[in-house]
Amino acid sequence: MKHTGKSDxxxxxxxxxxxxxxxxxxxxxxxxxxxxxxxxxxTGLWCTSGVFINGHRLEGELHPWTVIVRALAAGELDLAxxxxxxxxxxxxxxxxxxxxxxxxxxxxxxDDGCLLAPETRYAARAHEIVARAVHPLGTLVLNADDPAVxxxxxxxxxxxxxxxxxxENPAIRRCRETSTPAIWCRxxxxxxxxxLWEIGIHGTSHRSLPSEKHLSxxxxxxxxxQTEARSADFQAWDSAPEIPILDVRDAPCTLGGTLTFQxxxxxxxxxxxxxxxxPLTTIRTVARTFLPDATVLPGACNLFSLQGRDxxxxxxxxxxxxxxxxxxxxxxxxxxTFVLVHDFPWLSADELYEVGRLLGKVRxxxxxxxxxxxxxxxxxxxxxxxxxxxxxxxxQPSLDHALRSALNLSRPGDLLLIIADNAQDAVATLEQIExxxx
Length: 438
Hints:
Elements: E1 16-20, H1 25-38, E2 43-47, E3 50-53, E4 56-58, H2 62-73, E5 79-83, H3 86-92, E6 99-104, H4 112-116, H5 118-132, E7 134-143, H6 147-150, E8 159-164, H7 170-178, E9 182-186, E10 189-193, H8 194-204, H9 212-215, H10 223-236, E11 242-247, H11 260-275, H12 280-287, E12 302-306, E13 309-314, H13 319-332, E14 337-341, H14 349-359, E15 364-369, H15 374-384, E16 392-396, H16 399-409, E17 415-419, H17 423-437
Parallel strand pairs: 1-5, 1-6, 2-5, 6-7, 7-8, 8-9, 13-17, 14-15, 14-17, 15-16
Antiparallel strand pairs: 2-3, 3-4, 9-10, 10-11, 12-13
Helix pairs in contact: 1-11, 1-12, 3-5, 8-11, 13-14, 14-15, 16-17
């Protein structure tokens, strides 16, 4: 894409969406992609697992993405979604006013250790670049629960939309009082205000419904259904300043509403979708059926069922990423939790201690796979025994051995949590055991 000149700033921006953050950006990108496809929008996506157009993966990355952006500019596509990695953005930059929409999911979730890390400062710089790359007539969605992300509102000329886990978050409360766009969670229900919905209404007045040419890309619904959905939205918002979007317990990716970071991901994607004019019925339908696909979202809380056990595979790399995961599992309260974990070779001994302290909160058994050095294993165990009732720790030579042991020791209704150093290998191991059992 070429650099956008000042003369372009008065023009309406393309429906080009940037999504970034240290966690959750892939999930948000895929949620929005499914919502767009369900709405009949001809949509391109560039994410960590490749470049896609309406379910079809293209060969390569840079060239097909260039083709997608050109098609968007020519009106041959309705929407293009780009997941942005912080190192690339910080090194290369982004063209001025080039995105019509963007979302920044999280930086550190208020973890002091994370905020002090060099890679975090690098990511923060990248997030600033993304915020500045949104067109003044565009929309920037920010996480109000993460102060470092919320501060990015100061660096953007675009319209700001906030999402937060609680209506009494000071920034969310201010949005509610001033009728500025926001989406939040109240007593387990995601709620949006009228100001957010109206962004999509005003925006779609400048865009036509998908053409017959666009439908050839593989639409899900008919144009008649699309029109009915919009009419239903008008009726729902006729007099209400706020409207419930979804009970989070109905979204399977939240583990019954216990995984707060997945709730935030749904809110982020829903905010973008509403700003794009996606009907409420579409947003609800996708959120109620979406689970992170291990083939395109490996390690993003992939949920499986194996021999009556729930198996959750996550690729958390740092203690601050583990904290909400462990909190959600404890709130879900399975009979027993079997944690299969590696030794996090990139973490310091102090960080490994913190990993042990967090995982030691679960009720069950911890299986450490691989060949951790004795001093690292000691730091990990010291963190575990910090808890009043620490679980037992056992060593296994490989993930395969650990998973088979966990299956032998567990019972239906138990949860197997795999913290994977390589999520794709973990999925392959799981599938191999499943094939053997059939």
